[in-house]
Write a structure and sequence with these properties.
Length: about 230
Amino acid sequence: MPNDRIAPSILSADFARLGEEVDTVLAAGADMIHFDVMDNHYVPNLTVGPVVCEALRKHGIEAPIDVHLMVEPVDRIIADFAAAGASCLSIHPEATRHVDRSLELIHDKGCKAGLVFNPATPLDWLEYVIDRVDLVLIMAVNPGFGGQKFIRSALRKLERARALIDASGRDIRLEVDGGVKVDNIREIARAGADTFVSGSAIFGSADYAETIAVMRREIAQARERVA
Ligand code: DX5
Ligand code: ZN
């Protein structure tokens, strides 16, 4: 039985009240915080850097901070995020010249390492580095913006990734990011995800606790079907 986790993406939070928003969403039942870093180069948007991650730690956030690096090149910023209190750093294979080296660098800095797959990126990248990753992140939208529509081919990719992870016998999280909502999270869970990023569906809702509770109920239904 997977230990499912919900990871609200701060991209859809009110940045003027970020510390309070993160406190509220954690009190509402979130397991970790998804922190989207965009550079206006690898993706056509610009967000926040290590200073903001450090500020959340100084504010008192103790939950895992799951940093999604949409940054090219990525290596230089890895040490900064590790020092800023990131728990896990995920990289896109297209955003680094040397995927294996970047993953090793993340571990050297004491963080968990994730590899991210865009909608058109094949899972082949995983084959020779599966022993170096702690998390596989399947994008269900093209990276860059919150509030986009879920791309359904991600379900097939989640199924394949789940099979690869299970066959590896390693403790690897399977995370999904983009367009995750109350009304599709059940089939996403059924496809094999165990970590659910959700930005607009949580921060855009009137009651974060209620939304997270409904998401957990939907995930539980998916687990019942396969039990
Ligand atoms: C998109 C980001 C996502 C985004 C998800 O590039 O990686 O984490 O915040 O937002 P929603 O849940 O609104 O699709
Ligand atoms: Zn993300």
